[in-house]
């Protein structure tokens, strides 16, 4: 073929020759004003996703027998980011020689965050939570990750009516979700089933009573105490049916593992689709192993190499933190991928049901140290902490 | 330098996106030492995947252009072969080219791969188009050959050779897509169908250079497009592994904050956000010149010429993607195609204008990956991703309290448009949902305004003069070259890989010449 745009083909040639001089001229004639230092979309991104935040404890109060609420303010910026009710933050600090961090659901509302107030509730039940409950005091400083997690309402996915089931300290995300509904940032109708041992163990009771006046429906279910104000026993299918249309709600569950198993069993006759039941993740603890072996854990962080001990029954993340090495982590449940690290050599075991790795991660030997236990001496390459 | 890394590197690559990863491999293959820095905890930039419930979503790749089969490899397969990663990845072939729908009811066309099949299908849709479409592909073929030649000589083309071997390429070279299609006397309807790929380059066809578009279209149509089985994350991890095999270092969670220079404005190193410094004299930046010259380098070390050249350039599209995991199969839902282009209008100039505003933008390039690879999601499910672009920074005006709602508004519109235009009802089957807005892209990749397409390859800044000025552009700031979507080859997977290849190899040359 012979392509010709203009009547005289050589004009086309001439135009082609001018491509470079034309671009050269445009580049030379750009503005000499200083290049922008900021871009508005990036400013919004930084507001919503600040990464690691420096925070200070401003208030502590007991919200039920064995559960305390901790309120923080952010030190490095004006306020916390707006978030989705149901999300969590991970709080970390140094305790003795160890670096420790734990994820906690946010109990305060997204609007509170804009007033630089963010609250979590911690049950006195483990190493870090024990420290928080007994030793932390107002004025103490911590590092906190930005709000994260997919345990929140999705308008385009979920039913308009949500049935939330809380056990024990699992009430926290629902406090935030109920407040966010009251503040009109969320559009759902919410029925909350709250299971506890007895009245003394109902956390945030007064807040929930106030929220009940503005549209939240709460059903308290006590297992160990008979009280005519409340339902008695466990949160069974029959009890759920009494208050909601099971086929027409989306369930949000937050509580201990055995509660999830119980509810799942109760709901199984209804053949609900997978999407109908959403569960909050819980952090991964030690494995149950008698006389656990101790292995050598060699860790590369940039151009630094260290070797520490790792017990067979503890996650690689716990072993590193125990040795005073700070490691990126958020969910501690295998799902968020923030601790994504390269296995160099060694054998390992991933906690049951917690392998949140991508397909290619498995193929190319990447692991999530927060849910990975050593089964031999092991060598890994991890990113530095932010 | 203080708090300095133990090693001095021949080159530091900033950003482990597609361009940076390939550049690092090229440096290492040539025997240079190299440190790759990445602010995120994963390689790949946009080339990644993420999990939600039972689903692992592809973050961005629709299909890898110019890949081709083992026997008839395209340029990208050949590049991957050279890099030593072709066989680290399991590949699947994409079945058909595209399904074009315009919501003004003018078009609903399914186009196949292969020039013969494509031309025949076009003749069926637009009788009488065969001759001009055949000529179109002939012209495209010459474009492709000329570009291969241009790449092989690193942009230093010999004018006489070009004139002799690629005369039509030169004659058509200064015109826009629409100008050339008009000269070829392609019927209007055929033109509209042919222009469907335009959103992959993000410039309307009045302003997009024909060379750029033609070279992309022929690569799609003649060399089948492919995908890695384990999503684009598989390519990114294969490159990560290759870099480690070749003795390169990769530091994740390590944001390069400053490029350090001496009193002669020569590059002497990089400083990370946490204060750590690394000594080097050569940098390949897999990020935007706006960030490098506006933030990473001290103002006083950036010559006015560079400031002017950077200010002159125009940001291309800002990205938005909706990801859906559905609890029914594609077949059950009636989703037949792998790749849909749904526009309001086939008039690309009008469409471009509608894409400036959240309210008026209803464009979507939508993929149902199961129609290329049924096992990409669990049995009984399928997954889809819907992508669009915004041609303004409206997302930056949204108050943070309205942000999540705005993401939902766009997502809901995409679902409604898809359901209305294809008749496939998907909303009730949504098991997992995620959305990425320009804010998300700005967050993860740091690009200004959440741009996913680099600088617009429109008018004077089109692909050809960029390629012809590679050395001239680089000479403005010695020791620094660019890779990725903001570099000479512009955006898209294949282009980003090629830019890494070019800048990687050229930096090897710089290092050898510079002797440092």
Description of the structure:
The complex is a heterodimer of chains A (386) and B (516). Chain A folds into three domains: 46-144, Translation factors (Elongation Factor Tu (Ef-tu), domain 3); 161-279, Rossmann fold, CATH 3.40.50.80; 294-382, Ubiquitin-like (UB roll) (Roll). In chain A, 23% of the residues lie in helices and 29% in strands. Chain A has eleven helices and 19 strands. In chain A, the strands form four sheets. Chain A has a six-stranded antiparallel beta sheet. In chain A, strands 10-9-8-7-11-12 form a six-stranded parallel beta sheet, sandwiched between helices. Chain A is globular, with a radius of gyration of 26 Å. The mean pLDDT of chain A is 96. With 516 residues, chain B is of the alpha/beta class. Among the domains of chain B are: 4-48 and 231-314 and 456-514, 3-Layer(bba) Sandwich (FAD/NAD(P)-binding domain), CATH 3.50.50.60; 317-452, Polyamine Oxidase, Chain A, domain 2, CATH 3.90.660. Helix content of chain B is 38%, strand content 19%. Chain B contains 19 helices and 20 strands. In chain B, the strands form five sheets. Chain B has a seven-stranded mixed beta sheet. In chain B, helix 1 packs parallel to helix 10 and helix 1 (18-29) packs parallel to helix 19 (493-514). Chain B is globular and about 65 Å long. The mean pLDDT of chain B is 95. At the A-B interface, helix 1, helix 2, helix 3, helix 4 and helix 11 of A face strand 1, strand 4, helix 4, helix 6 and helix 7 of B.
User: Order of strands across the biggest sheet of chain B?
Assistant: 8-7-16-17-18-15-19
Question: What is the fold-level CATH name, i.e. the topology of the domain at 4-48 and 231-314 and 456-514 in chain B?
Answer: FAD/NAD(P)-binding domain
CATH superfamily of the domain at 4-48 and 231-314 and 456-514 in chain B: FAD/NAD(P)-binding domain
Sequence stretches where pLDDT stays below 50 over 5 or more residues of chain B: none
Would you state the CATH class of the domain at 4-48 and 231-314 and 456-514 in chain B? Alpha Beta
Strand order of the largest sheet of chain A: 4-3-6-1-2-5
What is the number of domains of chain A? 3
Give the CATH H-level superfamily of the largest domain in chain A: Nucleotide-binding domain of ferredoxin-NADP reductase (FNR) module
pLDDT averaged over residues of chain B? 95
Main beta sheet of chain A: strand number and arrangement? 6 strands, antiparallel
Distance between the termini of chain A: 59 Å
Strand content of chain A: 25-35%
Rounded radius of gyration of chain B (Å): 22 Å
| Greatest interface by residues involved | A-B, 75 and 101 residues
What portion of residues of chain B belong to β-strands?
Answer: 15-25%
Oligomer state of the chains in this structure:
heterodimer
Residue ranges of chain A: pLDDT <50 for 5 or more in a row? none
CATH-derived architecture of the domain at 4-48 and 231-314 and 456-514 in chain B: 3-Layer(bba) Sandwich
Number of strands of chain A: 19
Which CATH class of the largest domain in chain A? Alpha Beta
